[in-house]
Each structure stands twice: as structure tokens, then as C-alpha cells.
Automatic annotation (TrEMBL):
Pfam families: TPR_Epg5. One of its GO terms (biological process) is autophagosome maturation. Residues 3-228 form the Epg5-like central TPR repeats domain. It comes from the Eukaryota. It comes from Graphocephala atropunctata. GO terms for cellular component: cytoplasm. This is Epg5-like central TPR repeats domain-containing protein.
Length: 352
């Protein structure tokens, strides 16, 4: 609240001065990280984390207000595009792992000697997770302030967060203690306001198709909050509608089998609701990869649904969805040119 009050009342710094301050901080700590940061910045700045995180939070919040006041006539998405690079640049040195092959500048020689066999420099070690959590929490508070101040930019900002997350954290070389800090903070954002672009959906597919259990857990928690019914209605009018439906079917079936997703009632209702989507747009090649994965991964008892057996409503809903997507149900009134092939795939999968 104090930071919010400062942001709305301060007049000492102009929007450009705030941008310069954010850039200066980000640039300085990037250099520090490359020079000293074998284990991130925390070993050197541990005792200063509280004031540093608060100061960066003050700059971030003030920058949001100043940007809004400076560009009153601009669209929210444009304001978001102005804000994100500065917020991200200021907090990234504290939170993002550094992949050595992607660094624009080399690390110090002593770091290179110690990291010959490592492709990633972690942003912190286990012992510094508490300090990192303070910085991550302040980063999220800045993001939340943008979402509260510019509600119309919510989806754009959350898209930036999602892309930042996948780029930096959806890798098998990232340790679980790092993911734990980032997940616990990022999941607190209002993902029900997220309206993913096709690029965002492609990144979801990229995550779900790798063996990244912790990332799957986070993605599942985000996925079930997204208003997919509205999203599908919007994409139905675009040229990419077929690809969008294929990707969504893939995500629905795979994520519905994730343990944490199965613990929520939302996935069953989402699977049932999604039966109404335009699955006739999905071609047989997209359908085949999904149905084959279903055969390998789901409990085969769902096909028989014998009385007295303990089978899952989620599995039944997933099977029903695949039946609809195959055009094998009498409820289906629209068909793809490859519907016959999809029906054959569904029958073959059921027999398997």
C-alpha cells in the first residue's frame, strides 16, 4: 500500500527518468551477475535484498503510473508493451537463469572455468530461496499493479509473463527449488484474464510435449483458468482456426491426465463444455497424434466402463471428447474432409 501511494503521489521523477532508472538498475545488475554471479546475485547482496526489492518495486509501480499519465490516449496494449521491457529488465538479473550459449556478453573468466560443463547459471542456490522469493514477489506485485491499473491490458501482460516463464524456466536443467519460487508467485496472478495468442498456445504445446513434471503442474493450473470457450469463439473467425483447435485438443487430452489437474472439478466441466467446439476443423494427422497418446496414457478400462469398477469421470469425458472430435457421435453435424479416417482411428484406438 505504501508503494502504491508513493507511485500515485510522487512527482519528482518523470516517466523518462523512471525508465532510465529501471534500465540503469537492470544493466548494472546484469554486469554484476556476469562478473560475480556463479550462484546469482544473492551471495553478494544478501543483506540488501529487502531495500533493493522495495526500491525496485517503487520504481516499477511509479513507472506504471507515470506511463499511464504520459500516454493517456494510448491503447492499453501499447502501454503494456512499453512497460514490460523495463519491468522485466529490472528484475531479470535477480530471477532468470542465464543460459551460457545465449549470453550477449561473456561471463568473467573464473566463472567460465567453473562452468565448462554447465549450460546454465542458476539465478540462486537453495539457501537463497527465501531472498529470491522476496524479489519474485515484488516482480509479481508490479505485474499485478499493471493488471489492476490497466485491466484491458491484462491478457497482453499475462502473455508476456507466460513467454518469460517458458523462455527462462521450462527447461530440464532448471532445478525444482527455482521452479518452486517462481510457480508459487506466478500462479497468484489472475490467469482467468489470460487470452492466449497462438504463439502462447504453441509454447504450451512445447512445454507439455517435454518431460517437465513441475512445469506441467504449473501449466495445468494456468490452463484450467483460461476462458477457452470465449477463446474458441474468437479463433473460429480466424484463418488459424484449424491449427488452434488441433492444439487445444492436444492440450485438453494431455493436461486432463496430469495429477494436479485431475484434482480439480474444473477439468471435467471444461472437457464437457469443449465437446461443443468446432472439432470438425481438426484434420486426421492432428487427431491421430492425440488419440495415440490417449491409448498409451489413459486407463484402458474407460472403454468398457463396467459397472462396479472405479473409473474416472475425467477419463470418460476425455473419451467422449475424442469421440466428438472424430465425428463418430450422432450429435456431430459438421465434418472434416478426413472425418472417415478420424472415425477409423477412433475405432482402432478403442479396440487397442
Amino acid at each position: 500500500e505504501i508503494i502504491n501511494k508513493y507511485a500515485t503521489e510522487q512527482r519528482a521523477l518523470s516517466v523518462q527518468e523512471l525508465r532510465d532508472t529501471a534500465s540503469m538498475f537492470g544493466g548494472h545488475f546484469i554486469k554484476e551477475r556476469l562478473q560475480y554471479g556463479l550462484y546469482g546475485l544473492y551471495p553478494k547482496y544478501r543483506v540488501y535484498i529487502e531495500p533493493l526489492s522495495i526500491f525496485q518495486g517503487m520504481v516499477g509501480h511509479a513507472l506504471v503510473v507515470a506511463t499511464l499519465q504520459n500516454d493517456r490516449g494510448s491503447l492499453s496494449d501499447k502501454l503494456c508493451e512499453q512497460l514490460w521491457p523495463h519491468l522485466c529488465g529490472m528484475f531479470s538479473p535477480w530471477l532468470a537463469p542465464y543460459f551460457t550459449r545465449h549470453l550477449a556478453e561473456p561471463t568473467a573468466a573464473w566463472i567460465q572455468q567453473l562452468t565448462d560443463d554447465r549450460s546454465v547459471l542458476p539465478p540462486w542456490i537453495v539457501a537463497d530461496s527465501g531472498h529470491a522469493n522476496k524479489m519474485a514477489a515484488m516482480f509479481v506485485e508490479c505485474i499485478r499493479f499493471v493488471l489492476d491499473t490497466l485491466p484491458a491490458a491484462s491478457s497482453n501482460m499475462l502473455s508476456c509473463v507466460w513467454q518469460f516463464y517458458v523462455t527462462n524456466f521450462a527447461h530440464n536443467s532448471i532445478k525444482d527449488y527455482i521452479l518452486g519460487v517462481m510457480h508459487s508467485n506466478f500462479i497468484s496472478l489472475p490467469w482467468q484474464r489470460f487470452f492466449p495468442s497462438l504463439q502462447d498456445v504453441d509454447l504450451m504445446l512445447k512445454v507439455v510435449d517435454q518431460y517437465l513434471p513441475d512445469c506441467h503442474t504449473f501449466l495445468g493450473a494456468v490452463f484450467i483458468e483460461v476462458p477457452w470457450y470465449t477463446w474458441v469463439a474468437h479463433t473460429a473467425t480466424t484463418q488459424e482456426s484449424s491449427r488452434a483447435h488441433g492444439a487445444l485438443l492436444h492440450l485438453l487430452i494431455k493436461l486432463a491426465n496430469e495429477p494436479n489437474v485431475r484434482q480439480t472439478a474444473k477439468i471435467t466441466s471444461l472437457l464437457l463444455e469443449s465437446q461443443q467446439f468446432a472439432w470438425q476443423l481438426v484434420d486426421c494427422s492432428s487427431y491421430e497424434s492425440v488419440i495415440n497418446w490417449f491409448v498409451m496414457s489413459y486407463d484402458p478400462r474407460v472403454i468398457l466402463q463396467l459397472p462396479g469398477e472405479d473409473w474416472s469421470n475425467i477419463d470418460v469425458a476425455a473419451l467422449d471428447l475424442l469421440e466428438m472430435a472424430a465425428g463418430y457421435s450422432p450429435k456431430v453435424t459438421h465434418f472434416h474432409s478426413t472425418t472417415l479416417r478420424k472415425r477409423q482411428m477412433f475405432v482402432r484406438a478403442s479396440v487397442k
